[in-house]
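RESIDUES AND SHAPES:
===
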Amino acid sequence: MNKYLNDAAGAPKALGPYSQAVQAANGFLFLSGQVGLIPETSKLIEGGIEAEARQVLKNIQAVLAKANCNFSHVVKTTIFLADLKDFQLVNSIYAEVLGDFRPARSTFQVAALPLGARIEIEMTAFVS
């Protein structure tokens, strides 16, 4: 039976009919895409792509913690960027935050993201 995870402390609430994450019976944890929302206000953080990228990863870290795991459990990341010109900066922030953990990853430029965000990240983790 799948377990729907919501209300992770330190992460924004879902803006629609979805969960922050779903823990599947097979041990995989599927995290919904996160944009740079400030959890307390549900407003997009100001300060450009760097501030958004850091907030997104902070939000994801909170959702992972709700499932009693961390970035070491992540096996796949997908990054969506409004402008692929931000790739290098996002890549450096991602490397800084994830440290030695190197999950498989894809990065795409997309036409638009929710709330005018510049970045959205989704992850899949394995939590046996």
